[in-house]
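Notes taken during the Thursday session

The instructor put the following on the board and asked us to keep it in front of us for the whole hour. The protein is Rhamnogalacturonan acetylesterase. We were told not to look anything up and to reason only from what is written here. First, the residues (416 in total):
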Amino acid sequence: MQLKRRSVLAGLILAPATAARAGEAAMTTRKFDFTSKPLAGWTAVAADRLYDAAIGHGFEPGEGRSFSVALPEGDWRVTLEVEGGADLTVKAESRRLMAEQIRTKAKERREVVFVVNVRTAALPPPPRNAPGGTEVILNPREKGTPNWDDRLTVEFCGPAPKVARMSVEPASVPRVFLLGDSTVTDQPFEPAAGWGQMLPRFFAPSVSVASHAESGETMKSFLMEHRLDKVLSQTRAGDFALIQFGHNDQKENWPQTYVAAATTYRDYLKAYVGEFRRRGAIPVLVTSMHRRRFDEAGKIINTHGDYPAAVLAVGQELGVPVIDLAAMSKVFYEALGPAQAPKAFADGGKDITHHDNYGAYALARCIVEGIKAGVPELARHLSADAGSFDPAKPTPPDAFVMAPSAARSSAALRGN
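Then, after some discussion, the predicted structure tokens were revealed:
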């Protein structure tokens, strides 16, 4: 049967990072067949084959259907052959949305292609007697999660997650690094989500999205924990970095990481920008989205003070693109209104900072609009079906559909 490609690679202009990464992950294609009649040359995988480190692949234990392959860190192009009668949503690592609502007719076959970034906490060791660390200092919540382990994990979600085959091969593509806090990060459990978690779905497989954002982070802690070191160790000319800090940086009750909007906050932003520019990457600043706090007239109250304005000022001073997510989130929340806006937030709306799948998805679409408007070098990598989004006219929360992951938790989010 003829296969239909959902993403087209031909004709895309790749940035210089492509050549720089050639040979970084020298490895032949791995091919896995989940059907009862596996093809010659493909590794047969039974439905009950649990992950085994000795053979380097298998399904993860527990609820849901997640398949893992032992791989070194790098970028990996995944091709799925979707069977007929499928209704499939695909996530990778810690619930990164890669493809959604792939629906096929009874006898149809379709290929779905995406690129997944895999990483470990290890850092290139510093030279003898030089300062530095050898690994990222992870918080307890991160240890053992798919985002930091030694394998690539793909989760098949949806009412009919019918995948016949899966192949994995190295990909030499530019990276889109995400640096930020809990509102950006890959939240490991339903129902919480960060906008960075949703962003991969809107890109063609000509880039990889490498989210290093983590809950509770500030620009200072991101430095102290060697997270910036990790990102910079992998940055190449032609890469991109979306930088959103502010929710935690403004907390004066966190004295070790507090930075003032008028002085040190701007200085740290400039330092981050300088580090990426030094390596030939394109930095993009992002203002923090508002918290959900309305006044009596149904208008959002600014709880971030002068921090969003400081981001805009640094962007103008340095000639750096700025995505004004603060402004777009204000429009989005006010369009929903005080009664409906809680449906975009975690913990059933009790949380006024963190989002659920609906809210994170809408904010990711705001980021996409910002990329279109101000980062043409990155906009060329958006998927053909990325669509357009007006935050003043969002999809009603009750009309939004997102196939959930199996992993769930009611624990309070770090940094909340």
